[in-house]
Amino acid sequence: MNKVVPDAAAAVAGIENGMTLMLGGFGLCGIPENAIAALVESGVTDLECISNNAGVDDFGIGLMLQQRQVRKMVSSYVGENKEFERQMLDGSLEVDLIPQGSLAERCRAGGAGIPAFFTPAGYGTEVAEGKEVRDFNGKPHVLESALTADFALVKAWKGDRDGNLIYKGTARNFNPLMAMAGKITVAEVEELVEPGELDPNQIHTPGIFVQRIFRGVDYEKRIEQRTVREQ
């Protein structure tokens, strides 16, 4: 099976209005920049996006929000995006805020075929409203369901033509979890190599989870807030 596609446009082909997408990354670190740009160019709308963050106003998922392509965001931290705030407050964007650890585990569970799990996170807050609660070892736990998506869009440092992926630094965040949970997983990589060139002991995402892979170009790798120490 040839998993390599020529560019981002080919990689996101088949993503249609109303689909659910997972987008890897933590803040602006390790986000699938090329795939997001291709989604913006495609004009697809009514999307449900599962991502730890919502980008910033003019980068990442923020570009999709500017074009009103997102119907619902399932996220953990969204404090860097004023456009997100505007749409949430005016009711045009549905938002499901989830504790960060619960979001990660719900993605992992979806990839592992586990339909639901109990966690103490969120008990006694709005997060637990309408959900089953059980006591384990004298402590209340909330039932959380797994998350899956029609497409998972992830970004890795290196990948081979079979879809095996290696992430670098903080980019190894939600990407490995989401790569498991998409019906179709699209990986964009900085370096695309031949099978056998990657050390099997260093591979973070086995190629069995990846259906499409391409080499990304022109990465900006923006920093949300640059803080430097005074001299």
UniProtKB/TrEMBL annotation:
Pfam families in UniProt: CoA_trans
Signal sequence bounds: none
Leading EC class: transferase
Keywords from the UniProt entry: Transferase
InterPro entries: 3-oxoacid_CoA-transf_A, CoA_trans_fam_I, CoA_transf_BS, NagB/RpiA_transferase-like
Regions that span the bilayer: none
SUPFAM superfamilies: NagB/RpiA/CoA transferase-like
A GO MF label: succinyl-CoA:3-oxo-acid CoA-transferase activity
The protein's Enzyme Commission number: 2.8.3.5
Record NCBIfam families: pcaI_scoA_fam (TIGR02429)
Family: Belongs to the 3-oxoacid CoA-transferase subunit A family.
Protein name, as recorded: 3-oxoacid CoA-transferase subunit A
Biological source species: Neolewinella antarctica
